[in-house]
Design goal:
alpha+beta
Length: about 110
């Protein structure tokens, strides 16, 4: 799968070199390259979701990752089954790992920090 996208990206790069740096043509090619990268991301995510259906994340995997982050500060990233999770520490001191896409990001809080 990745070779197909890599070949398309290389072709777009070669084509872009034939146009001036600040040309509309080159900007259009870069836009196409960004769209290609997005499509690759969507395809990789779809395949990973299929993989997770067959081989789901287990409690043992999460427990192992928690053990590896025993002395780590909140916000530390940990790999669980090929996916990055974030360490959070509850007010009562309980440590847990959550997927970043499950975090309710508050832009106002982020701006204050």
């Amino acid at each position: 799968m990745f070779k197909k996208y890599e070949a398309m990206a290389e072709t777009l790069e070669r084509i872009s070199l034939s146009y001036p740096e600040d040309s509309d043509e080159r900007r259009a090619i870069y836009a196409a390259a960004r769209a290609l990268a997005l499509q690759l991301h969507v395809e990789a995510r779809r395949r990973y979701e299929e993989f997770l259906k067959e081989f789901p994340v287990t409690d043992a995997m999460i427990d192992n990752a928690l053990a590896q982050t025993a002395n780590s500060p909140e916000g530390t990233m940990a790999s669980v089954h090929g996916e990055m999770w974030v360490l959070v520490i509850d007010p009562d001191g309980k440590r847990r790992l959550i997927r970043p896409n499950l975090i309710d990001w508050d832009e106002d809080d982020a701006a204050d920090q």
